[in-house]
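Researcher: Hi, I'm a grad student and pretty new to this. My advisor asked me to get structures for two proteins we've been looking at. I'm not sure of the right format, so I'll just paste the first sequence and hope you can take it from there.
Model: That works fine. Here's the first sequence with its structure tokens right after it:
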Amino acid sequence: MIISGIVKSSFVDYPGLISAVLFAPGCNYNCFYCHNRQLLSGPQEEISLDYIYKFLDSRRGLIDAVVITGGEPTLQKDLIPFLHKIKSLGFKLKLDTNGSKPNVVENILKENIVDYFAVDYKAPKSRYPSVAGCSITAEPVLKTINLLLESDTDFEARTTLFPGLSGEDIFQMAKEMPVLPRYVLNRYRKPENYLPGDLEKINSIPLSQSEISAIVKKIREYQPNICF
């Protein structure tokens, strides 16, 4: 398992709990608005696992949970043993995923080691290739979401309201997904690192607060547990 970054204390990454956040490098998506682009390719810093385990051991009683994010953690071949090791230290576990590897999520569910999942649903099915990458489709993500629903595990799906994502898009996404226990709309923040060719999209104007509020009212029929 490779970990390339750590936030030692976070109040926002695990709902209701104080957590440490660990960043796994590498991703099979290429979203123009990604805030962790430095993790996507190239040589990565590798934090010693011994350091991570010793750090977490020293934080018992001070933090409640550990969040594994990325990049995309489900690409890591040693993810499940790593999760077991952290769980053995007594922490709640949250896994952030783009949902593209439902087989990995299914294996994690069988192990019963993750307490909370967050799955990114990027765009309507028709727009997934243009948003996440030319060979990417939404079907594996929807399969992951349905696996989590069937397992009765705590989870949320979330969508970043990036420039170019319209109210009609969000309405379509709300209908494409099953009714979720929690659906989070995240406001867009301009990333610090981005591809030069994406500059125009990065600087485009996203939906306003009033536009988002109007959309939320419209889609509550399909996603009553929406948050923004």
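Researcher: Oh nice, that was easy. Here's the second one.
Model: And its structure:
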Amino acid sequence: MSAPPNAARICYRAGVLPAPPRIELDVVGDRTAEIGTTGGFADIARPLLVARYPDGTKSASFSYDNVARRAIDAAVMAAHYVEGGRRWVYLRSAIRPPMALRNDGVRHPTTLWELPAGLIEPGESPAEAAARELEEELGFVVGAADMRPLGRPGAPAPALIGELHYFFHVEVAPAARRAPTEDGSPLERGAVVVAVTVAEAVEACRAGAIWDEKTEVGLRRLAELPLP
């Protein structure tokens, strides 16, 4: 079958992707004032952009709405331990109002099982935020130096927000867990913490019982770690 007209044909070795085309974006204006912002957890920004292509041409200016937030990035933590020859990981229930606010006429679950996660505050390192959030959401007191990277940062929704997720894992002792300190918001009240084997958690992702994609990414990366 022939390729569509003007379709780019990219050949690459198995398992090696070529670099994507380098397209630069210039901010040439700001139209945020015409939509207004809320001053809440997240705002909408509307910059005016021009794209510069590898062949030297430029696009016409265009506006692009995106989510703006005081703390843009987040840390995702997999707290785990080994027992009975299997690795166990802690999950926490989380209320996600946007799931209830969908307008597709389908009743979606608003409380999801997730790996604990939280925003990286200005001035914090990703590892410092991970340690702080672990105490707030699971009740484990660890230091930033105890957090181990779990793969590279990922962009969860790059078409909507420039947020990066920094993944960490840390080995914990179940007996050391205290009551989570939480952050005082209604969304963290009444959360449930459970420990399941990593294999069971990954299977729950396959079965659709875990909806949160950052959690699935973290769990699958954790599953690749060798047992001690």
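Researcher: Is there anything I should tell my advisor about the second?
Model: You could mention this: The longest helix spans residues 126-137.
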